[in-house]
Specification:
Layout (H helix, E strand, L loop, with lengths): L1 H23 L21 E4 L6 E5 L4 E6 L4 E6 L4 E7 L5 E5 L3 E6 L4 E6 L5 E6 L5 E6 L8 E8 L5 E3 L3 E3 L6 E2 L12 H8 L3 E2 L4 E3 L18 E8 L4 E9 L19 E4 L4 E4 L6 E6 L2 H5 L6 E3 L6 E3 L3 E5 L2 E3 L4 E7 L5 E2 L4 E5 L8 E10 L5 E10 L2
Parallel strand pairs: 15-19, 23-30
Antiparallel strand pairs: 1-21, 2-3, 3-4, 4-5, 6-7, 7-8, 8-9, 10-11, 11-12, 11-13, 13-14, 16-17, 17-18, 19-20, 20-21, 22-25, 24-28, 26-29, 27-28, 29-30
Length: about 400
């Protein structure tokens, strides 16, 4: 009888604990950063009208998704560059939220209830929520559309006289949502003064080798469209060396009226170049629509042949016990390019279609691995793609 009772109690505890985790949304989950394959956009100019004012946006999913927050609707709409449309509308629990996108997640700070949430970009479901250990006003979230964390949180302390005082940034792990120490300095990219000044004049690009400029004279009320229809021109650059490749057309921005919203929804977050998908995205200051236009990277490169460009960007984080994947994509004037895996951790393989896979050993001791791909066009000089892989525990 005691054995039967113990068995019933054991089963009850398992079922109860499972339902408790489901209700509270456990802050741990299996990690998965998919290898993104972009589709080239073949259309022309089009406007996607939004049902309310756009109050913030964030690029996510390694450049595939644009997260569009509309505060008045308590909604985040997900634009997919492959589908060229809004594919999901995610209901927020508050009209006072901050959002930021990563490689595989969206992080949300519910400021009215002081909560930190993680949403999957695979299922578009909320996976985890935890109380935020911050006693003050959260003012900004930083992560990176291809980042696996940690997330940087900027906040201000509310003092007894109701004034705000800035405090050191805090960092949170994307899987546990627990506070962690700041990344080691060697893991944080250092930019020169020239690079910082250059970035200040640029929008956001999903490829590290290219950049898209901001429009000129945004505070001039006499601005006028410079492109076909109600559009204007911005410049496309290579970064190293800094060189203008050509022009892109974006929605005519009109002129900028500074408001408190601009501190969050900055001009830089209104203009995007996704070269892997031949797509340029822009949001004018009316904040009522997303404008989509086509810019084929190959067309710009064809002006100065021969060329060989790696248009794909690998995820630079992998997890012990899981498979890491990367699909290499090229833009080349040569009709044939050989790809060789010149340096890689033991067990990494490459297919005939140039897809890299690596089942990361669970007992791997190293915290970092290095990959070198040698790309040789027929009759041309070899080019290399080199990148490190950070190895993490699940």
């Amino acid at each position: 009888m005691r054995v039967l009772f113990g068995l019933i109690l054991f089963v009850f505890l398992i079922l109860f604990s499972g339902s408790l985790l489901s209700a509270q949304e456990s802050a741990t989950s299996s990690v998965s950063v998919p290898s993104i394959e972009f589709r080239k956009y073949q259309g022309g100019h089009q406007d996607l009208k939004l049902p309310a004012e756009i109050t913030d946006v964030s690029l996510a999913g390694q450049g595939r998704y644009l997260l569009i927050y509309m505060q008045s609707l308590r909604r985040v709409s997900v634009y997919d560059v492959n589908e060229v449309r809004i594919i999901k509308n995610l209901a927020m629990a508050t009209d006072d939220a901050l959002i930021v996108g990563g490689a595989a997640e969206m992080l949300v700070v519910n400021r009215s209830q002081n909560l930190l949430e993680r949403w999957s970009l695979g299922t578009f479901q909320r996976e985890a929520v935890k109380p935020l250990p911050v006693r003050g006003e959260v003012t900004r979230l930083d992560l990176g559309f291809d980042s696996c964390g940690p997330m940087k949180l900027t906040w201000k302390e509310v003092r007894s006289d109701l004034t705000l005082r800035g405090n050191p940034d805090r960092y949170f792990d994307l899987q546990t949502l627990e506070e962690v120490v700041a990344p080691e300095p060697y893991l944080v990219q250092k930019l020169s003064k020239e690079e910082l000044e250059f970035n200040r004049k640029m929008g956001i690009c999903s490829h590290p080798d290219y950049a898209i400029s901001l429009p000129l004279r945004l505070n001039d009320k006499k601005r006028f469209p410079t492109g076909e229809g109600n559009t204007e021109h911005v410049s496309i650059f290579t970064r190293k060396p800094v060189k203008q490749l050509g022009y892109a057309e974006i929605a005519f921005m009109e002129h900028q009226d500074y408001s408190p919203l601009e501190r969050l929804f900055t001009v830089r977050k209104r203009i995007y170049f996704i070269p892997q998908a031949d797509q340029v995205l822009s949001i004018p200051f009316s904040s009522d629509r997303l404008h989509v236009s086509r810019l084929a990277l190959r067309k710009l490169l064809e002006k100065e042949p021969p060329y060989l460009v790696v248009s794909s960007v690998p995820s630079k984080v992998c997890w012990r016990g899981q498979e890491w994947q990367y699909q290499l994509q090229l833009e080349s004037s040569a009709d044939d390019v050989s790809v060789e895996l010149s340096a890689a951790p033991e067990g990494m393989q490459i297919t005939e279609s140039a897809k890299l896979t690596w089942r990361v050993p669970e007992d791997l001791q190293a915290d970092q691995a290095f990959v070198i791909l040698t790309l040789t066009p027929r009759g041309g000089k070899a080019k290399f793609q080199k990148f490190p892989l950070e190895v993490r525990d699940q």
